[in-house]
Structure formats: structure tokens, C-alpha cells
Design a protein that fits this description.
The protein folds into two domains: 153 residues, Rossmann fold (3-Layer(aba) Sandwich), CATH 3.40.50.300; 80 residues, no CATH class. Helix content is 35%, strand content 25%. It has ten helices and ten strands. A six-stranded mixed beta sheet has the order 6-7-8-3-9-10, sandwiched between helices. A four-stranded antiparallel beta sheet has the order 2-1-4-5, covered by helices on one side. A hairpin with a 2-residue loop joins strand 4 and strand 5. The relative contact order is 0.18. The protein binds adenosine-5'-diphosphate and magnesium ion.
Length: 249
């Protein structure tokens, strides 16, 4: 590890993935700090989701390195990466619709339990208090006994964020978390993300510029699998290259 890398939670360097010769991510480098909310923006097809797929081990890199707290993630399997402290939320929520909010959170509590084990599991005080703490964070404290399938779209998104938070990841990655949410829900989500970054870093892919403005510490603009621009929201939104390929549309 070189001296420059050691301060970063995540150091992505020279990352490339080639799908039948097409480089969806092309010699990409970026660095994420502790307690940072990094937002990745860019046009459709820029490679944003693929970057998250590479970090969480769902897609294997062709070349390059992804170092997370000193571990080389490109050499690890998906479950090992989760275990190392990386949580990832996909675009569509994957919750158990037939179970309650409480049960969904309880199932995600890190004890290596499966659905069948959890249904007969005697709830201990630690689990209950943790579930209640997380439920409050995700604005669902009054809906613990509601079936998850009956929640609004936004509430389902929050529940899934809660299911990741209860595992206490050091790096949380969210792909378009406010898509389909009302303006009020977007504001609440921004508040939620701003609250959870103590002791963790967050990477968010998002298109809603108001939301990006509300949460981003720094913004990385991707274009054709490469960094087009990077810095504060104010800086990137006035970058003529960004206006040309993305914001101007
Ligand atoms: P974004 O999230 O920025 O919209 P993606 O990362 O989903 O973009 O996709 C980047 C490019 O890579 C797109 O052209 C997409 O079609 C292509 N791509 C993504 N995943 C695969 C795959 N598994 N096989 C082939 N092409 C892929
Ligand atoms: Mg995407």
C-alpha cells in the first residue's frame, strides 16, 4: 500500500471491465474518505451501476484495483466483501413483502440466521432495541407491525436501507435511492443519509440534482466509464464538460 492510499476508506485505481471488448468502466480511479458521502452522477450508460457491481464483487474487474480498508476487493467473493463491511442497495427494493417491518429488520440483524431460523428465534433484548433504533432512523418506528408489502414505495426503499444499516457496514452503496419518491420523501431520505454517515462512508448514484445538492460532500461525474469531473457540487455543476454531456440535457 502506498502512503497516499492509507487515508482512504476506498481507493479505486485503474479499474477496467470489458464486456466483449466494450469497456463499460475504463481505467477509472477515485478515492472515498471516511465519513464521506460521495455521489456519482452521469448520463445513462456511463458505467455508474457497473462501478457498484465491481465494488461489491458481482462483476469481476478485467484489470485494476479496489482497495477497501487495506483489502483488495477484486480478489474477494461477494459474501466476503459483505463480511468485510460493504453493503449495497440495488435499484429495486428486495424486501420480504409478506413479513412485517420488524421481521424484515430482524432478519437482517447480523447473526447468520436464515428465514426459517428467524421465525422460531426467541427475540432477545439486543435485537429488539437495535430494530427499534433503526426503525426510528428510517421513519418507520410506528409501522413495525405493518406488512412490508403494504408500505409505500418510498417506505420500502427506507426499509431496505434499514436492512443494510442494521448490519453496520463501513461503506454503504445506494443505486438511485430516491427514484419514484415524492418530494417530501426525497427530503427525508437526504436527512436520513446525512444522519448515518458518522463512522461510515456512503456512495450514492443519483440523477435528482436537488437531492445531490442536499447530500453530496463530493461528486464524481462519470462519462464513458471514466471520470469526467470531480469535486464539490458547485464546482462540477459549472464545469462546461459536465454541462455539455449531462446537465445540459
Ligand atoms: P449506468 O448505471 O451509468 O446507466 P451501467 O453501468 O448500467 O450504466 O452500464 C454501462 C454500460 O455497460 C452500458 O452500455 C451497459 O449496456 C453495459 N453493461 C452493463 N452491464 C453489462 C453486462 N453484464 N454485459 C454487457 N454489457 C453491460
Ligand atoms: Mg444504473
Amino acid at each position: 500500500m502506498n502512503a497516499m492510499q492509507k487515508d482512504f476508506v476506498l481507493a479505486v485505481e485503474g479499474l477496467t471491465v470489458s464486456f466483449d471488448g466494450f469497456k463499460a468502466v475504463n481505467d477509472l480511479s477515485f478515492y472515498v474518505d471516511e465519513n464521506e458521502i460521495r455521489v456519482i452522477i452521469g448520463p445513462n450508460g456511463a458505467g455508474k451501476t457497473t462501478v457498484l457491481d465491481l465494488i461489491c464483487g458481482r462483476t469481476k474487474a478485467t484489470t485494476g484495483s479496489i482497495r477497501f480498508r487495506g483489502k483488495e476487493l477484486t480478489k474477494m467473493k461477494e459474501h466476503e466483501i459483505v463480511h468485510a463491511g460493504v453493503g449495497r442497495k440495488f435499484q429495486n427494493p428486495s424486501i420480504y413483502e409478506d413479513l412485517t417491518v420488524f421481521e424484515n429488520l430482524e432478519l437482517s440483524y447480523p447473526k447468520g440466521r436464515n428465514v426459517w431460523g428467524a421465525l422460531t428465534f426467541k427475540r432477545d433484548k439486543d435485537v429488539i432495541s437495535k430494530v427499534e433504533e433503526i426503525a426510528e432512523m428510517i421513519f418507520l418506528q410506528d409501522l413495525l407491525n405493518k406488512e412490508a408489502g403494504l408500505l409505500s414505495h418510498g417506505q420500502k426503499q427506507w426499509l431496505e436501507i434499514g436492512m443494510l444499516l442494521i448490519q453496520n457496514p463501513d461503506l454503504l452503496m445506494l443505486d438511485e435511492p430516491v427514484a419514484g419518491m415524492s418530494v417530501a420523501e426525497r427530503k427525508q431520505t437526504a436527512e436520513l443519509l446525512n444522519r448515518i454517515t458518522k463512522n461510515r462512508s456512503v456512495i450514492v448514484i443519483e440523477h435528482d440534482m436537488q437531492f445531490v445538492q442536499d447530500i453530496a460532500h463530493r461528486v464524481t461525474v462519470l462519462h464513458q466509464g471514466k471520470v469526467l469531473s470531480e469535486g464539490s457540487m458547485d464546482r462540477v455543476k459549472h464545469d462546461p464538460k459536465v454541462v455539455e454531456v449531462y446537465l445540459g440535457h
